[in-house]
Each structure stands twice: as C-alpha cells, then as structure tokens.
Amino acid sequence: MRRDRNGPPATVLAFDFGTRRIGVAVGNTVTGTARALTTIAAADAEARMTAIGDLIAQWQPQMLVVGVPVHADGALHAMTARAQDFASELAARYRLPVHHADERHTTALAQSVLDDSRAGRKGRARRDEVAAQIILQGWLDDVA
Predict the structure, then answer these.
(1) Is residue 3, in this structure, part of any structural domain at all?
(2) Which residues have a Cβ under 8 Å from the Cβ of 2 and sit 6 or more positions away?
(3) Given Cys at both, which of 41, 79, 125, 129 links 36, Cβ 3.0 to 4.6 Å?
(4) Is 0.85 topped by the overall pTM?
(5) Count of domains observed in the chain
(6) CATH number for 63
C-alpha cells in the first residue's frame, strides 16, 4: 500500500521487534528521514510496553511501524506471528494506526553498517535501533 507524503505531517515511531530487545527509531513524513532512537531491553513484556508508552508520550507519534520478519523467499515463520501480535497489541493499547513493514535482512544490514563505521562493542549494542531505523527509512521511502 502506498502512502501519500503530501498528507498531513506525521511523526512516526518504528520498532524492530525481538523477544529480548526492541529497537526503536523515529522519523517524520515531511523530511522522509528516520534516525535510530533507542533499544528497549527490559526484562519482561509489560516493562517493554511501559517503556514504549513513555516514548509515545514523549514523541507523540501519529502512527507506528513494526518490522515483520519473513524468510528470504517471503515465507512466514514463528517470529512473523509474534511481530504481528506485537503490532496488534500496540494498536489496541495506544490507539494509533500501526503499519507493517518487511524487515528482511535489516538486522544483518544494521550490523554491516555498524561494522563499517568501526563502532565496535558499542555498535553491537545499537544494532536493534539501527535495524529499526532501516525499517522506518524503507517505509518512508515507500511513501513518496
């Protein structure tokens, strides 16, 4: 589904869902750019949702984007359903539109970007938020 960048300006938060960590990025539809924001590494699901709620309160997004993992050939797998469930929970809890984005290869690409920047150990800790940035940038690029 294509979205129109000429619509009202919108702040967007994006998530690279994982069972241990959730990468978060922020962007907007005016500039069409995304930036890595943070990684949520809370111990349990409710603590992660609380941290997400804090980010939503701070950034006041008009919509959310969740990366949905699939195999390289597009086939679904166990994490696909978990990411979709996460997206549904966000929509129900925060009453915001939630868009799904293909996240094939984003974690590997994020690691490659960090390796190229010689980020070292600190860079590995940022991998999830950089993956969220890549997910969001791809989604924003589809808006045009």
Answers:
(1) no
(2) 142, 143
(3) 129
(4) no
(5) 1
(6) 3.30.420.140
**Residue 5, in any domain of the structure:** no
Structural domain includes residue 1: no
**What is the identity of the amino acid at 81?**
A
Range of the domain at 112: 11-143
pLDDT in the model for residue 107: 57
Average pLDDT over residues 125-135: 88
Please check whether residue 15 lies inside any domain of the structure. Answer: yes
**Spatial separation of the C-alpha atoms in residues 129 and 18, rounded to whole Å:** 11
Question: Looking at the predicted structure, is the pLDDT value of residue 3 above 50?
Answer: no
Model confidence pLDDT, tens digit, residues 18-34? 988 999 999 999 999 99
- How do 33-40 and 22-28 pair as beta strands? antiparallel
